[in-house]
Structures are given as structure tokens and as C-alpha cells.
Amino acid sequence: MIFEVLSLFPDFFSGFLTSSIIFRAIENELLQVKLTDYRTYSKNRHHQVDDYPYGGFPGMVIQAQPIYDALQELLLEGNAPVIYFTPQGRSLNQQILQNYTSYERIILLCGHYKEIDQRVRDLCISDEISIGDYVLSGGEIPALVFMDGISRLLPGVLSDIESANSDSFSSGGLGFPCYTRPDIFMGLKVPDILLSGNHKLIKQWASEQGILLTRTRRPDLIK
Ligand code: ADE
Fold it and tell me: Which CATH number does the domain 2-151 belong to among 3.30.70.80, 3.40.1280.10, 3.40.50.150, 3.40.50.300?
């Protein structure tokens, strides 16, 4: 999978790219993350990319031209979906992440300031995604969330894919509570069933716990 990230702050991604699962996936050539600073496409003498919004509204808007030119260059290398992160997008969920795992290359556009010029959205964007009903200062964190969520679904990225298959949302609801050693901590004991060695009953317990948790915390997920 290749992620092409367009951002005004490419340095923002360095910690993500050099840590844990993502770092290993890059080392193992399962993942590539290419960063483009679209400021370099600005035709402005000072590489300025933002301007005042028409209509006299407050805030700044990123101009269409640098983003459009950067996208055209990336799309010349091959077609790919172009995702723009915005609170106005559709809400990200596990199913959307799963669907995107089928692409070999995805272009991720991070805005900043107020918004990007609507015309570049109309012309170039194939999907708009929000990571929640709140406003962040840019699309960088949403892009990280998106890349992390997809990466762990790619074959070979997690050492134990079963682990991803039992996560919350993998079958629509929340996951089950997990325990590790010691079997008693601060007087609290690991449920006996998990020490029973009976894999069939353990699986059933995990499924029931997931359903219980979903019912109490996220009844909206129950179909
Ligand atoms: N940019 C700013 N806030 C955002 C959000 N909640 N989701 C996606 N992109 C954003």
C-alpha cells in the first residue's frame, strides 16, 4: 500500500513513521508513505498558499492552485482515490477502512486553517472523511488515524491477524475485555473461564462479553 500524503506540515508525520507497527511495515516493504508539501507548488513569490475567504468570513482558506497542481502531478503517476479530511466529510468507520484496503495507492489531502477552496474539492476529490464531530486544526491527525487504521488490516502488518479480527468493530460491535498475567491484581481475579483451557467456551464468553458491552455502551451499533 502506498499512501501519498499532501500536507503543509510533512514533519508532523515523522514520529508516526518511525514507531512500532508502522515502522515495521515500512521496513518490511508492506507500506510506503510519501509526503508532499504542497506549499512547494505555490506560484506565489513567498510560497504563500492561503488567502482571505470571499464573502468577508473570518479565517483563511487554502488556495486551489497549489493543491490542484500537486494532485495533478501525483495522478500522472497513476490513478488513485483522493481523500480530503474535513469535519464536513462522511464519518470514518471500520467498514470504510476495510474497503480502502483493496487499493494499492491512496492520496490523502490534509487541509489547514479554515478550509480549502471548494473548487479543488469539486474537481479532484473522490471522498471526504471526518473522524468525528469536532474540529481539529488540520487534516494531519485524521490522516494519521486513517493510515494507522488501514495499515493494521493489511496482510503481514500485524504478526497475528486474528488479533485484528477480534478487535472492536471487526464484526460490527465492541470487543471483549482482555487480561494478562498475573491472574490476581489488587484483589481482582481474571475470570475463571479464561483459565479453563476450554477454547470453545472461551470464544463464546468473549462473544457474549462483546455483545454485553455493545448493548450498554453503543446500542446504536446493534442492528
Ligand atoms: N479537519 C479538521 N477537523 C476534522 C475532523 N474532525 N475530521 C476530519 N478532518 C478534520
Answer: 3.40.1280.10
